[in-house]
Amino acid sequence: MLHKGKFNVLGVSVDALDYAYAVDSVLAAAKENRPFKVTALAVHGVMTGVMDPVHRWRLNGFDLVTPDGQPVRWALNLIHRTNLAKRVYGPDLTLHVCEAAAKDGIPVYFYGSRSEVLEALVSRLQAKFPELKIAGSAPSQFRQVSSDEKEQIAQKIRESGAGIVFVGLGCPRQEVFVHEFAEAIGKPLLAVGAAFDFHAGLKQQAPRWMQDRGLEWFFRLMQEPGRLWRRYLGLNSYFLILLFLQTVGLRRFSDSGSKPAAEVGYA
Fold first, then answer.
1. Strand locations in the chain (E)
2. Cβ proximity of 185 and 33 under 8 Å
3. Contact criterion met (CB below 8 Å) for 199 and 192
4. CA quadruple 169, 129, 120, 19: dihedral positive or negative?
5. In this structure, are residues 28 and 38 in contact, taking their beta carbons and an 8 Å threshold?
6. Nearest Cα residue to 43 out of 17, 64, 16, 70
7. How far is residue 182 from each of residues 98, 108, 134, 195, 198, measured CA to CA in Å?
8. DSSP 162
9. Are 236 and 46 in contact, with CB atoms under 8 Å apart?
10. Fold category of 3-199 in CATH
11. CA distances from 217 to 26, 53, 221, 235 (A)
12. Which pLDDT does position 211 carry in this prediction?
């Protein structure tokens, strides 16, 4: 297991760690019945924290922020000399946690996306891990919810007997959900983004050679150019510029942020 600590990447605290440490930490929290907030951030996720001090405050309160994208891992190595050999990719982390949860008999829950995605996801995961106990699943409301509705969602998850909750709402909504629901649910919550679609078999992942070379963004851009071109071409370029400035010491990035004045309540 490897965990070298948290490091400032453009003001967002990212953990230099491996899969074994992340999985062990999640399972330990599940066995102790305590909240534990995890997210896996690629460039887009880091940049949401750069541009929004309120969201940066949320992200920097997470227990683990894994380097989901290769550029984020490269940033850790370039700025902080962490010598991190591999990223900790959300979809792969999902599988590792499910495998470990199956072995330890810890039930899991899936929140987010749409009903048809969840049905396919649950079916495929149960086929892959026959011993995996799935406590339940619920699709996103795709809107803001009232405080009463929030408690109903949290109560449903608590009463399911779930020990670990996976959240797939897209960035940054899933991180907001994890931040706002963690205490009410009282279990580890993992924001894993596109993992739901990938493991449901509804979206294709980039070939491994592209993932290893940090070209996953290009693969996804070719799949959904209309939706993703601004995110990847604009944010990726901005990320590289800011990364250069931090690396050479021309700009410092504070890891402080602004505490939210109120909850967003998106579910």
1. 3-9, 12-17, 36-41, 64-67, 108-112, 134-138, 164-168, 188-191
2. no
3. no
4. positive
5. no
6. 70
7. 19, 15, 19, 20, 25
8. -
9. no
10. Rossmann fold (3.40.50)
11. 28, 25, 6, 11
12. 87
From CA 59, how far away is CA 42, in angstroms rounded?
13
Cα separation values, 131 from 29, 86, 100, Å: 20, 28, 10
Q: Quick check: 193 pLDDT over 90?
A: no
Omega before 130 cis (within 30°)?
no
What is the pTM (predicted TM-score) of this model? 0.94
Answer yes or no: is pLDDT of 229 > 80.
no
Angle at 10 between CA 63 and CA 55, to 5 degrees: 55
* Residues in Cβ contact with 227 at an 8 Å cutoff, skipping those fewer than 6 apart: none
- Chain length of the chain: 267
Q: Within a 13 Å sphere around the CA of 219, how many CA atoms are in the beta-carbon half?
A: 14
Which residues, 6+ apart, have CB-to-CB distance to 211 below 8 Å? 70, 89, 205
Residue 265, sorted as left (phi over 0), alpha (psi -120 to 50) or beta, turns out to be: left
200 falls in which pLDDT band (50, 70, 90)?
A: very high
Helix and strand counts by DSSP (H, E) for the chain: 13, 8
Distance (Å, whole) CA 245 – CA 165: 37
Bridge partners, 8 (sequence order): 13
What does the alpha-carbon distance between residue 240 and residue 215 come to, in Å, rounded to a whole number?
A: 14
